[in-house]
Amino acid sequence: xxxxxxxxxxxxxxxxxxxxxxxxxxxxxxxxxxxxxxxxxxxxxxxxxxxxxxxxxxxxxxxxxxxxxxxxxxxxxxxxxxxxxxxxxxxxxxxxxxxxxxxxxxxxxxxxxxxxxxxxxxxxxxxxxxxxxxxxxxxxxxxxxxxxxxxxxxxxxxxxxxxxxxxxxxxxxxxxxxxxxxxxxxxxxxxxxxxxxxxxxxxxxxxxxxxxxxxxxxxxxxxxxxxxxxxxxxxxxxxxxxxxxxxxxxxxx
Length: 253
Hints:
By secondary structure, this protein is an alpha/beta fold. It has helices at 19-30, 48-55, 70-81, 107-135, 156-176, 197-201, 203-212, 225-232; strands at residues 10-14, 34-39, 60-64, 89-92, 138-143, 181-188, 243-246. It has a single domain (10-246), classed as 3-Layer(aba) Sandwich (Rossmann fold). Helix 2 (48-55) links the parallel strand 2 (34-39) and strand 3. This is SDR family oxidoreductase.
């Protein structure tokens, strides 16, 4: 058994149906964790992420929850926190994005993005994290962003939410590190997923982005696998309040 071994652990991964969340769930299962996958549109059975997890020899449970619905998120948090088998690892990856120039960015889009990307993250973490604190152990991993550090273009709500996630990561770490709970975040760079499809399809923006990435390519969702397992494992026992970029060198440019 190594410090990276997650055998016997239970991980909740939100936004698990596709993209980065699916890759994170697959990575955690590969390291030995059983998975509860959460998404607003997750199939009750036979989803692609479920197939990934079962192929790794681990168990999978699907929960369909709309993160735009505060009551549904609170109910899910209470359910998970009250179960006989405790959650060892909480991966807060669910998110959404709305693109519009700031002067035209309407209230509905702003409020939706803040609810899904920040408010729901806190509500779920408050519930599950409280049970971790009571037990004196647990791992919380948020999905932050390069826009936790930068301003972006035409995504003011998303940028505000992701700056909030970086701050929340540090605030919770300050309180929970002495109680045996690690709270950290990953900041993916430009990853080729549905969320970045508009940028990939824009020849001018896509070239500008690619020209700035020292690694010379867009990231793949599986590029987050190793960092996810690291932060979820005992190898990161003394890592608290970190926002870890996985960005091909973008922020160092």
